[in-house]
Amino acid sequence: MSFKFICLAMTCAAMLATAAHANADQVGRPHYRAYEALDHQPIGEPANGTSATEVIDVTIKETKSGYMLFQPDVIAIKTGSVVRFVIRNDGALDHEFYLGSFDEVAKHQQWMRKYPDMAHDEANSVTVPSGGQSELVWTFSSTTNLEFVCLVPGHREAGMWGVILVHDHLTSDRKSENRQ
C-alpha cells in the first residue's frame, strides 16, 4: 500500500469518527425522539399546543431511608386524552420525569449511566430541579402501557418509577389532582 493511500484511509476514518461523535448528542441517543420512529411502540406524542383535557399532579419525594418516589406511581388515562403533568420536586436533589415504553426506558437508562450529565431536550422528558416544578403536556393517542421514570443514575433503583395505563375502558377517579 502506498503512503498516500494509508493517509487517505486514516483521514476518512477520523472524519467518520468525528461525525459519529458529533451526532451522538442527537441521533446517536437510543431514545432521541423515539416516539417518532416507525418501529417504536406507540406511547403518544407531544401535545404541541393542544389544550389539556386533564391535569395530573405528580410529587417527587425523597425519604430519610434513601427512597425516591413519584406520587402517584400508577396512573390510569383514557385513550385520546391530552394530559398536562405538573411535576413538583419536594426533594433535595434534581430529578427528571421521562415517559417511554419499557424498552425505551431500558435503553435510556443505559445511556444515562454512560452520560450522566447529558442535557434533556426531548419532548417526552423534563428536568425537575430541587424545590422546583416542571410541566409536560402529552397526547395519549394509543392504547398502551408505559413507564415514567427518573433515570438520573441510581434514582430508578431507589424507587423513582411508575406505570401509566392508557386504555379506552379506564377512567380516573382523581379528584384533587384532576383540574381543567
UniProtKB/TrEMBL annotation:
Name of this protein: Putative cupredoxin-like copper-binding protein
Organism name: Sulfitobacter undariae
Signal peptide from the UniProt entry: 1-22
Start and end residues of each Blue (type 1) copper domain: 62-166
Swiss-Prot/TrEMBL keywords: Copper, Metal-binding, Signal
GO MF, any single term: electron transfer activity
InterPro entries assigned to the protein according to its UniProt record, in alphabetical order: BlueCu_1, Cu-binding_ET, Cupredoxin
Keyword Signal listed: yes
Pfam families associated with the record: Copper-bind
